[in-house]
Write a structure and sequence with these properties.
3 domains, chemotaxis, 333 residues, cilium, cytoskeletal motor activity, 10 strands, cell projection, four-stranded antiparallel β-sheet, Surface presentation of antigens (SPOA), extended, single chain, cell membrane, six-stranded antiparallel β-sheet, alpha+beta, Chemotaxis protein chec
């Protein structure tokens, strides 16, 4: 094995085998020469190094986290997106690998040439649509039968989602994503020649109880101007990073300390039926779910932080902090 150091006993055994004819030196040389020959498929040209592929993976790890936050806020449900794989394949092979009917969003990314394709599996696309229309995120898809309203809603949400691509690219260069086409049939989409090398980043996506893939297809022509930047050396150094000025940290700390945050002392809560709510009248009593002997929950920016007891101070209502709030959302603050 290359780089392996043999012991004296192993060297002696090897020389003995060669001298007795158990091993043939010519056969060893021939075997070594055969190992140097590699099959190369010109239709599947590898135009990116492993180092550059790793850099693209790191960049899209960040994009996946941003998309997770975006869709969680928009859909109000559990969303988890992560990079499953990053591969370089011919464009034709990528088109054959996706469903015959799917959701295809084509984007320009000026100042770079060419287009970037975001393919969304129909399961995921319809789960997004169902949540936006007030459903539970069910995925009963019929992509070829999309109505004009459904098409508009889908294209709008994915266009807004892809705007976050700008932030994912910020370490390389400033881009301005712009949606140019929305299609459902891959056969009608010809971004580059069939044998053109593209990088496909597959994002494993879960929305509620629905799972599927989102694929980002980037042709070589798009990445060509930034290939020198797709290296570990470039990513490890940060030319835009400025040294912190003296007193900058203290100044930031003072500003944060002067920031105002809302504080609420919550007496308690309960739930009633709409019928009972509409029938409420002056003098009615609503029973809370909390006992009067239990401490109040004090929320800072809607996050439970302390327990307290009510009282008065200078003829005004007041609370006295008893302890820090344990459990729940205390790690969010």
């Amino acid at each position: 094995m290359p780089g392996e150091v043999l012991s004296q006993n192993e060297i002696d055994a090897l020389l003995s085998a060669l001298s007795t004819g158990e091993m043939n030196a010519d056969e060893l040389k021939k075997e070594e020469q055969e190992k140097r020959v590699k099959v190369y498929d010109f239709k599947r040209a590898l135009r990116f190094s492993k180092d550059q592929i790793r850099s693209l993976t790191r960049m899209h790890d960040n994009f996946a986290r941003i998309l997770t936050t975006f869709f969680s806020a928009q859909l109000r449900t559990f969303v988890q997106i992560s990079v499953a794989s990053t591969d370089q394949v011919p464009y034709e092979e990528f088109i054959r690998s996706i469903p015959n009917m799917t959701v295809l969003n084509v984007f320009e990314v000026p100042p770079l040439d060419g287009h970037v394709l975001m393919e969304v599996n129909p399961n995921i696309a319809y789960a997004v649509l169902d949540r936006l229309l007030g459903g539970r995120g069910a995925s009963v898809h019929n992509v070829e039968g999309l109505t004009e309203i459904e098409t508009k809603i889908m294209s709008n949400i994915f266009e807004r989602a892809f705007e976050n691509y700008r932030e994912a690219w910020s370490n390389l260069m400033d881009i301005d994503p712009l949606m140019t086409n929305f299609e459902v049939n891959p056969q009608f989409l010809q971004m580059v020649s069939p044998n053109e090398t593209v990088v496909v980043i597959s994002l494993d996506t879960t929305i509620g109880e629905t799972t599927g893939m989102i694929n980002i297809c980037i042709p070589h022509v798009v990445l060509e101007p930034v290939i020198p930047k797709l290296s570990v050396h470039y990513w490890m150094q940060n030319p835009d990073k400025k040294e912190r000025q003296p007193g900058e940290y203290e100044n930031l700390q003072r500003r944060i300390q002067k920031a105002e945050v809302p504080i609420i002392a919550e007496l308690g809560g309960t739930t009633i039926m709409v019928e009972d709510f509409l029938a409420l009248a002056v003098g009615d009593v609503i029973e809370m779910e909390k006992s009067i002997n239990e401490p109040l929950i004090v929320k800072v920016s809607d996050i439970p932080k302390f327990t307290a007891q009510p009282g008065k101070m200078n003829k005004k209502m007041a609370i006295q902090i008893l302890d820090e709030f344990k459990g729940g959302d205390e790690d969010n603050g």
